[in-house]
Specification:
Layout (H helix, E strand, L loop, with lengths): L1 E6 L2 H14 L5 E5 L6 H12 L13 E4 L8 E5 L6 H6 L2 H4 L4 E5 L13 E7 L5 E6 L11
Bound molecules: adenosine-5'-triphosphate and magnesium ion.
Length: 150
Amino acid sequence: MTVTVELPCPADTEELGRVLGTRLLAGDLVVLAGPLGAGKTVLARGIGDGLGVRGPVTSPTFVIAREHAPGPRGVPLLHVDAYRIGGLDELDDLDLDTDLLDAAVVVEWGQGLAERLAEEHLLVRLTRRDDDVRLAELTGPPRLLPPRGP
Ligand SMILES: Nc1ncnc2c1ncn2[C@@H]1O[C@H](COP(=O)(O)OP(=O)(O)OP(=O)(O)O)[C@@H](O)[C@H]1O
Ligand SMILES: [Mg+2]
């Protein structure tokens, strides 16, 4: 199932992330796709807020993966930036499948790589329109999709 959402400003992207984050459970995988500056980290920040995890969700570019301790909902967030990951071997080295047992995992630049970590996942493809409005195309099982379309 695919849903498309228009995101005129960063606050809209963060709010979409918040909606997604409130629905995530440990073991859920979210793959974020889209070009540089598309808004993947902004979305991940909203997801962290929806999950209620600790610590600010910022670009993990130089650490590859950052774990955020759980808040009241008890679900930690593992935020991964796969931009520099060369292939499946390097991904396997991160042992993300182990982390997926007890955390929600969000992978920027994960398309074509991270899907294999879980049986099902939510894919969010962010694109930037000429007028700078972002479009989010969400594909995944209905329980992970936002409850209302545009
Ligand atoms: N509607 C929007 N949604 C999200 N970000 C927006 C929007 N409009 C403008 N922006 C700006 O675009 C930038 C998006 O940056 P962000 O770091 O989230 O992108 P990214 O996809 O994670 O990039 P990278 O591939 O470098 O990790 C921010 O500076 C943000 O303020
Ligand atoms: Mg980013």
